[in-house]
Request: fold
Amino acid sequence: MKLTIIFAAMSLAIGVQAQQTATNVFQQTVNTLIPDANPTGYFSTNIVSGLIGGIQSVEVSLNITDGYNGDLYAYLSFGDGFAVLLNRVGKSNSDYFGYGDPGFNVIFSDFAVTDIHLYGGNGGNLLTGTWQPDGRETDPFLAVATDPRTALLGSFNNLNPNGTWTLFVEDVATEEQSMLVSWSIEIVTVPEPNALPLLSLCGLVFFAARRKSQIPNP
Reply:
């Protein structure tokens, strides 16, 4: 009986702790042309402040119009974290140019089903939906589908989220030009575990159980 009470109390305390996660969205509207065939690319920053706890997960929304999707390289950086969102999607050993669709209005999540590099083309239309980030850290002139995916959004997990997040976008080829319309980051935070309330609750349970055991049965 005592163990049942103790485990129930601990489960309740852990459940309360789990419910304290918070979802925070920080958006930037840019409406700027991405320099064409220019390795300096375009940088946009998003300043995050006032969040408590560490990062549990990050998702990124990216809205780019026009251009040629297979020309684009994009990454997100913050602190020790680094995630490659796009690396010339569709580019492979048999296709140097990649997919020719004009733009993205997508969400990047490590928990999505499909790697965006392999989305398969979208019939000449802007791509939508939720996708895994490209993750390939390879030079965009050399990147192919078989490259290892080592730069995903999980690299930000457990970091303190407050500070300056940076999006970089590069168009590696000429002619079709893309516009970065907007982007946002959705950060789920979880507070650092506080052992004191849990220990206090467990102490009270032990005390109550002990007192109960000392009461003689009628």
